[in-house]
Design brief:
heterodimer; A: 110 residues; mainly beta; Immunoglobulin-like; 0% helix; B: 115 residues; 7-stranded mixed β-sheet; 4-stranded antiparallel β-sheet
């Protein structure tokens, strides 16, 4: 069964700093997704990573996928307060059955 | 393009009562999902529909939860009777089955509180 583990679960960082969130998954998966969730809101799709070595960037966020290491990373560059949210990674167990990590709650402080 | 719609947004009931949630997916999306998200956790898949057929309901507590998608569009999720541990946000999502991304789009969710 696919297990998805994120770390850290809680992250407090200062504006302007860089940091990386890690997502490990337990079985072979050719796809990995990153979502953002603001408090009281639904999930917003950030990145879809489809192949080994895939790298995608949007603003201050960059996601990568290493299928051999079963690892995805979400790198935050020069954090700003607006990035404060919970970030989830998720992988498909089969077909469309998505398994989510527990989430990383990010707080960016001025 | 309109997103996934859900109603109600909030519901408070007492234990042993029944409750139903409604979801309207993005137009043209054949696949519909119901997730349960307990506070502080990631969403957990309850059931997945492909058109009006069930693809996966292995994590649905069938003694109290039921779901249907009769015409392959809208869907309802019912809990009868509710327990305290059912307090959670119930998220509906949809996807274009033919999309290579298989990306799921989520609705705003229904926050259920069971007292």
């Amino acid at each position: 069964e696919l297990k998805v583990e994120q770390n850290p679960l809680f992250l407090s960082m200062q504006e302007g700093k860089n940091y990386t969130i890690y997502c490990n998954y337990s079985t072979t998966s050719d796809r990995l997704y990153w979502y953002r969730q603001d408090p009281g809101k639904s999930l917003e799709s950030l990145f879809v990573l489809l192949s080994n070595g895939a790298v995608k960037q949007e603003g201050r966020l960059m996601a990568s996928l290493d299928t051999k290491a079963r690892l995805s990373t979400l790198h935050i560059t020069a954090a700003v307060h607006d990035l404060s949210a919970t970030y989830f990674c998720a992988g498909p167990l089969n077909n469309n059955d998505m398994r989510f990590g527990a989430g990383t709650r990010l707080t960016v402080k001025p | 393009e309109a997103g996934v719609a859900q109603s109600p947004r909030y519901k408070i009931i007492e234990k042993r009562q029944s409750v139903a949630f409604w979801c309207n997916p993005i137009s043209g999306h054949a696949t519909l999902y119901w997730y349960q998200q307990i506070l502080g956790q990631g969403p957990k898949l309850l059931i997945q529909f492909q058109n009006n057929g069930v693809v996966d309901d292995s994590q649905l507590p069938k003694d109290r939860f039921s779901a249907e998608r009769l015409k392959g569009v809208d869907s309802t999720l019912k809990i009868q009777p509710a327990k305290l541990e059912d307090s959670a946000v119930y998220l509906c999502a949809s996807s274009l089955t033919t999309s290579v991304y298989n990306e799921q789009f989520f609705g705003p969710g229904t926050r259920l509180t069971v007292l």
